[in-house]
Design a protein that fits this description.
Belongs to the claudin family. Residues 1-28 form the signal peptide. Its main location: other. Keywords: Cell junction, Cell membrane, Membrane, Signal, Tight junction, Transmembrane, Transmembrane helix. The protein has 188 residues and is of the alpha+beta class. The protein has one domain: Butyryl-CoA Dehydrogenase, subunit A, domain 3 (Up-down Bundle). The chain has 4 helices and 5 strands. A 5-stranded antiparallel beta sheet has the order 4-3-2-1-5. The longest helix has 42 residues, at 110-151. The chain is elongated, with a radius of gyration of 20 Å.
Length: 188
Amino acid sequence: MSAALQVTAFGLALLSTLFLLLATCTDCWMVNADDSLEVSHKCRGLWRECVTNMQDGVRTCDQYDSILADHPVKIVVTRTLMITADLLAGLALATLVLGLDCITFLKEDPCVKLKMCYGAGVILGAGSILGLIGSVWYAVDVYLERAMLVSHNIFLGVHYDFGWSCWLGMAGSTGCFVASVLLTCCLY
Protein backbone atom coordinates (compact mmCIF):
# COMPACT_ATOMS: atom_id res chain seq x y z
CA MET A 1 0.00 0.00 0.00
CA SER A 2 2.82 2.38 0.88
CA ALA A 3 4.59 1.87 -2.45
CA ALA A 4 1.38 2.44 -4.42
CA LEU A 5 0.69 5.62 -2.45
CA GLN A 6 4.24 6.84 -3.08
CA VAL A 7 4.02 6.21 -6.81
CA THR A 8 0.60 7.90 -6.99
CA ALA A 9 1.94 10.93 -5.13
CA PHE A 10 5.01 11.00 -7.36
CA GLY A 11 2.91 10.89 -10.55
CA LEU A 12 0.64 13.66 -9.29
CA ALA A 13 3.60 15.75 -8.14
CA LEU A 14 5.37 15.31 -11.49
CA LEU A 15 2.30 16.33 -13.49
CA SER A 16 1.56 19.25 -11.18
CA THR A 17 5.16 20.47 -11.30
CA LEU A 18 4.99 20.42 -15.09
CA PHE A 19 1.80 22.49 -14.89
CA LEU A 20 3.56 24.99 -12.60
CA LEU A 21 6.55 25.26 -14.93
CA LEU A 22 4.31 25.68 -17.95
CA ALA A 23 2.25 28.35 -16.20
CA THR A 24 5.39 30.28 -15.24
CA CYS A 25 6.82 30.19 -18.76
CA THR A 26 3.69 30.92 -20.79
CA ASP A 27 2.23 34.30 -21.58
CA CYS A 28 -1.53 34.05 -21.19
CA TRP A 29 -2.28 34.99 -17.58
CA MET A 30 -4.79 37.70 -18.47
CA VAL A 31 -6.91 37.69 -21.62
CA ASN A 32 -8.84 40.56 -23.12
CA ALA A 33 -10.56 41.29 -26.38
CA ASP A 34 -10.01 44.82 -27.62
CA ASP A 35 -13.50 45.25 -29.01
CA SER A 36 -16.86 43.54 -29.19
CA LEU A 37 -16.21 42.39 -32.77
CA GLU A 38 -13.30 40.26 -31.52
CA VAL A 39 -10.90 41.43 -34.21
CA SER A 40 -7.93 40.69 -31.98
CA HIS A 41 -7.15 38.60 -28.95
CA LYS A 42 -4.64 39.88 -26.38
CA CYS A 43 -2.85 37.78 -23.78
CA ARG A 44 -0.75 39.32 -21.02
CA GLY A 45 1.72 37.20 -19.17
CA LEU A 46 4.52 37.48 -16.68
CA TRP A 47 7.18 37.98 -19.35
CA ARG A 48 5.48 39.47 -22.43
CA GLU A 49 2.22 40.55 -24.02
CA CYS A 50 0.95 38.94 -27.23
CA VAL A 51 -1.77 40.04 -29.63
CA THR A 52 -3.34 37.61 -32.11
CA ASN A 53 -5.26 38.92 -35.10
CA MET A 54 -8.39 36.78 -35.28
CA GLN A 55 -8.83 37.26 -39.04
CA ASP A 56 -5.48 35.96 -40.25
CA GLY A 57 -4.08 34.32 -37.11
CA VAL A 58 -0.91 36.44 -37.04
CA ARG A 59 0.53 36.64 -33.53
CA THR A 60 2.77 39.49 -32.40
CA CYS A 61 4.51 39.49 -29.03
CA ASP A 62 6.20 42.34 -27.18
CA GLN A 63 8.74 41.47 -24.52
CA TYR A 64 8.49 43.51 -21.35
CA ASP A 65 11.39 45.79 -20.55
CA SER A 66 14.37 44.46 -18.66
CA ILE A 67 13.59 42.17 -15.74
CA LEU A 68 15.13 44.86 -13.52
CA ALA A 69 12.81 47.59 -14.84
CA ASP A 70 9.84 48.86 -12.85
CA HIS A 71 6.86 46.57 -13.38
CA PRO A 72 3.41 46.42 -11.81
CA VAL A 73 3.41 44.77 -8.40
CA LYS A 74 1.21 41.89 -9.60
CA ILE A 75 3.83 40.86 -12.17
CA VAL A 76 6.79 41.10 -9.79
CA VAL A 77 5.06 39.24 -6.96
CA THR A 78 3.64 36.55 -9.23
CA ARG A 79 7.00 36.02 -10.94
CA THR A 80 8.75 35.66 -7.59
CA LEU A 81 6.20 33.31 -6.09
CA MET A 82 5.90 31.13 -9.19
CA ILE A 83 9.66 30.79 -9.68
CA THR A 84 10.08 29.90 -5.99
CA ALA A 85 7.24 27.37 -6.26
CA ASP A 86 8.89 25.83 -9.33
CA LEU A 87 12.23 25.50 -7.54
CA LEU A 88 10.66 23.99 -4.43
CA ALA A 89 8.57 21.54 -6.46
CA GLY A 90 11.68 20.47 -8.40
CA LEU A 91 13.62 19.95 -5.16
CA ALA A 92 10.72 17.97 -3.73
CA LEU A 93 10.58 15.77 -6.82
CA ALA A 94 14.30 15.02 -6.61
CA THR A 95 13.98 14.16 -2.91
CA LEU A 96 10.88 12.07 -3.56
CA VAL A 97 12.59 10.06 -6.31
CA LEU A 98 15.35 9.12 -3.90
CA GLY A 99 12.82 8.24 -1.20
CA LEU A 100 10.62 5.95 -3.28
CA ASP A 101 10.57 2.31 -2.17
CA CYS A 102 11.06 1.11 -5.74
CA ILE A 103 14.42 2.95 -6.02
CA THR A 104 17.42 1.01 -4.67
CA PHE A 105 19.07 4.09 -3.13
CA LEU A 106 19.37 3.51 0.65
CA LYS A 107 17.41 0.26 0.36
CA GLU A 108 18.90 -1.05 3.61
CA ASP A 109 17.44 1.81 5.68
CA PRO A 110 13.67 2.17 5.05
CA CYS A 111 13.29 4.66 7.89
CA VAL A 112 15.49 7.18 6.07
CA LYS A 113 13.57 6.62 2.84
CA LEU A 114 10.30 7.28 4.65
CA LYS A 115 11.71 10.49 6.13
CA MET A 116 12.82 11.55 2.64
CA CYS A 117 9.27 11.05 1.36
CA TYR A 118 7.91 12.98 4.31
CA GLY A 119 10.43 15.80 3.71
CA ALA A 120 9.52 15.87 0.02
CA GLY A 121 5.88 16.22 1.03
CA VAL A 122 6.65 19.17 3.29
CA ILE A 123 8.74 20.90 0.61
CA LEU A 124 6.04 20.21 -2.00
CA GLY A 125 3.42 21.66 0.34
CA ALA A 126 5.41 24.86 0.79
CA GLY A 127 5.87 25.18 -2.98
CA SER A 128 2.19 24.55 -3.62
CA ILE A 129 1.14 27.25 -1.17
CA LEU A 130 3.50 29.76 -2.79
CA GLY A 131 2.25 28.85 -6.28
CA LEU A 132 -1.36 29.11 -5.20
CA ILE A 133 -0.74 32.50 -3.58
CA GLY A 134 0.98 33.73 -6.77
CA SER A 135 -1.78 32.50 -9.07
CA VAL A 136 -4.60 33.81 -6.89
CA TRP A 137 -2.77 37.13 -6.34
CA TYR A 138 -2.63 37.69 -10.10
CA ALA A 139 -6.24 36.59 -10.59
CA VAL A 140 -7.53 38.88 -7.85
CA ASP A 141 -5.56 41.79 -9.27
CA VAL A 142 -7.05 41.15 -12.73
CA TYR A 143 -10.52 41.09 -11.18
CA LEU A 144 -9.87 44.32 -9.26
CA GLU A 145 -8.55 46.01 -12.41
CA ARG A 146 -11.72 45.05 -14.26
CA ALA A 147 -13.95 46.12 -11.34
CA MET A 148 -12.17 49.48 -11.13
CA LEU A 149 -12.79 50.18 -14.82
CA VAL A 150 -16.45 49.24 -14.47
CA SER A 151 -16.94 51.32 -11.32
CA HIS A 152 -15.48 54.39 -13.04
CA ASN A 153 -17.66 53.80 -16.13
CA ILE A 154 -14.55 53.35 -18.26
CA PHE A 155 -15.48 50.46 -20.47
CA LEU A 156 -13.62 51.15 -23.72
CA GLY A 157 -14.68 47.74 -25.03
CA VAL A 158 -12.09 45.96 -22.88
CA HIS A 159 -13.09 42.80 -21.10
CA TYR A 160 -10.60 41.04 -18.83
CA ASP A 161 -10.63 37.33 -18.10
CA PHE A 162 -8.22 34.94 -16.43
CA GLY A 163 -6.02 33.29 -19.02
CA TRP A 164 -5.23 29.61 -19.27
CA SER A 165 -1.79 30.15 -17.71
CA CYS A 166 -3.44 31.44 -14.54
CA TRP A 167 -5.75 28.42 -14.41
CA LEU A 168 -2.80 26.12 -15.10
CA GLY A 169 -0.88 27.68 -12.20
CA MET A 170 -3.84 27.13 -9.89
CA ALA A 171 -4.28 23.53 -11.05
CA GLY A 172 -0.57 22.77 -10.67
CA SER A 173 -0.48 24.28 -7.19
CA THR A 174 -3.57 22.35 -6.13
CA GLY A 175 -2.12 19.10 -7.50
CA CYS A 176 1.14 19.70 -5.62
CA PHE A 177 -0.86 20.32 -2.46
CA VAL A 178 -2.79 17.07 -2.86
CA ALA A 179 0.48 15.17 -3.47
CA SER A 180 1.90 16.84 -0.36
CA VAL A 181 -1.08 15.69 1.70
CA LEU A 182 -0.65 12.16 0.38
CA LEU A 183 3.03 12.15 1.34
CA THR A 184 2.75 13.80 4.74
CA CYS A 185 -0.57 12.58 6.11
CA CYS A 186 -1.44 9.32 4.39
CA LEU A 187 1.98 7.70 4.07
CA TYR A 188 2.27 6.80 7.73
